[in-house]
Amino acid sequence: MKKILLILSLLLIFAFNSKAQDNASLPTQYQKMMEKILGNVPKVASSTATQVLDFAKSLIGVPYRYATSNPEKGFDCSGFVSYVFSNFGFKVPRSSSEFASAGVPVKLADAKVGDVLIFTGTNPRVRQIGHVGIIYSIENGDIKFIHSTSGKAHGVTVTEFNDYYKSRFMKAVSIVE
């Protein structure tokens, strides 16, 4: 990451100090290089989103427990997401279905670390909200999210946004703006 920032900084310095006629634009070869570099920089909503995510990470391993939002006993999915955001003063719903009207809707392609992903329940054919998680990372277009699952991990864990979850995906919302 430091190398990327160093290269990006050097390219920007070159762009502004160039003696070429058009200082406002980089030569094509450098534009392509910058696009490649910027495409690999993780998207993050804000420093608040980073703090929210760091707090969420500290809860990895807390067991799954239906209808619970207490780290000493466990979390269900919405209890986990609600608990995390509430600790930063955000008013968020307690049930996964209510997240459909929470925050600001965002396209998945524009979603950032810290945004909330909303899914169906375990049956993707039943298009009814039943699960939520928080985007953990986005690198090279690959999304991972943190959530409390009743599945194999049976608790707070980080999961890839794989084909199974893509089939269950309903929408993304930004709580932290």
TrEMBL record:
SUPFAM superfamilies: Cysteine proteinases
Keyword Zinc-finger: no
Domain of life, source organism: Bacteria
NlpC/P60 domain mapped to chain residues: 46-176
Biological process, per Gene Ontology: proteolysis
Claim: Nucleotide-binding is one of the keywords in the record: no
GO molecular function: cysteine-type peptidase activity
Signal peptide: 1-20
Keywords of the record: Hydrolase, Protease, Signal, Thiol protease
InterPro entries, per the entry: NLP_P60_dom, Papain-like_cys_pep_sf, Peptidase_C40
PANTHER family the record matches: MUREIN DD-ENDOPEPTIDASE MEPH-RELATED
Family of this protein: Belongs to the peptidase C40 family.
Name of the protein described by the UniProt record: NlpC/P60 family protein
Organism of provenance: Pedobacter polaris
